[in-house]
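Could someone model iron/sulfur cluster with this protein?
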Amino acid sequence: MKEIIQYFKDIAFGIKSLIKGMRVTGHYISRPSKIITQQYPENKETLQMFDRFRGEVVMPHDENNEHMCTGCSACEVVCPNGTIEIISKRVEMEDGKKQKIIDKFVYHLQMCTMCGLCIPACPTDAIVMSNDFEHAVFDRSQLTKILNKPGSKIMPGIK
Amino acid sequence: MEEVTSLESQEYFINMGPQHPSTHGVLRLLLSLDGEIIRKVEPHLGYIHRSIERMCEYDSYQQIVHLTDRMDYLSCHINNEAVCLGVEMGLEVEVPERVKVIRTIISELNRISSHQLWWGVMGMDLGAITSFLYGFRDREMITDIFEETCGARLTMNYNIPGGLMFDIHPNFQKRTKEFVEHFKKTLPEYDDLLSNNVIFRERTVGVGKISKEDAISFGCTGPTGRASGFSCDVRKHDPYSAYPQVDFKEILAEEGDCFARYKCRIDEMWESLSIIEQLIDNIPEGDYKVQTRAVIKLPAGEYYQKVETARGEFGVYIISNGAKSPYRLKFRSPGFSNLSALNKMAVGGKIADLVAIMSTIDLVIPDIDR
Ligand code: SF4
Ligand code: SF4
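Reply:
Sure, complex below.
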């Protein structure tokens, strides 16, 4: 007798538990305003990333095509995986002195782990993290970027 | 011709994984079966071995931190914290109170987000896609908090030896409080959807039992060990950061089956919420880091620091000879020890039970295979 009662109790519990679960689902079906899904490629124009988001390393240039990188290689040293390669050259300045300046700032995006260590390491704040996260390209070689723009110079006064 | 009279079954082997969806990554299990009954489970590792420990021997202490993001990626902040605490122990620096509190809040958020993901995936392993979507809905709020304050959603790398990479975002407290309010309302839904569901209970209650003695001898920690009654919460027994100042319970269960492990995690989320509530309004003012040298050199010696991640005890053992990289570094990862108990739990059950067991151990494969 006991087993039979237990059997029906189990069935009642089962049905009740299923109804409970369905009630939660029903609650959200009838309230579409609570849906939080973002329609990603459609909302591209309005998509706002958080300003600290680490997308990729970029080097800002001002309107005179000048950057702030001295070529000191601090970022190259601190990077855990050889993502940054600084190629510098020696040039003669107007006053006759020779100075080391940056020739190419090579950034291998395919190796970057976005750890963010290079940004605080830079003494002149020459590099920052941008929010851009759409990195997909068809060929790997496109991911190796030269961050200093062609013909760019170092900003006067940066040592 | 000899007549086959016996209908006795024969033992045979199948591979589960490395590309099986319910192994949550590249884990290969060699199952020895008798019909559908499991006789032996043998995990084969090595599919995503990246030799992280070896890499650490060539990296500076600041660089090691971001490698631990890539181990147990669901509790990356807690892993980072372990390395940083170990290095700080070696340098004998005391981080400001503010850092300790912020680290603790983010660790607990991290634990909740890990458990939310586990809950969703556990439902999915057992055939309920709904729970997956609900788990991810709530987790999204936490990843937004991380993205705003730490700069990344998953591999945050927010801790540095000596403190934090930057101060918290001005919105951090507001958003965290919003999340706590929201999650207090939606966590009971988890019970309605899964915990009390009759099908779910049938598949978890009494399945994959492990006794307290076995749990201890296999080194199971975290909710896996605590569900068998093994009190092993590092936050309680060896408190670090701001845990001494907060009041929380260590969740223990006796049964040691899948449902007990499930229940432990759900209850842990409540405890984490209460820890966050106690701390979020009391973040002390102060610096967010102490300045360390650009090149950190630990004094020669051995340092061990353990923390409680979402999966159990995570330990960092640093042997330094005074150079700028460790001489040897060993990680004690919770997933590896918990996996070793899998055979004990699964033998005698069915293949479908094995899926439930693996879900409740909450395996993260990169944590096992470093
Ligand atoms: S973010 Fe990290 S990996 Fe990427 S370039 Fe900077 S230091 Fe290197
Ligand atoms: S970006 Fe900064 S750290 Fe890197 S070479 Fe230029 S100045 Fe030095």
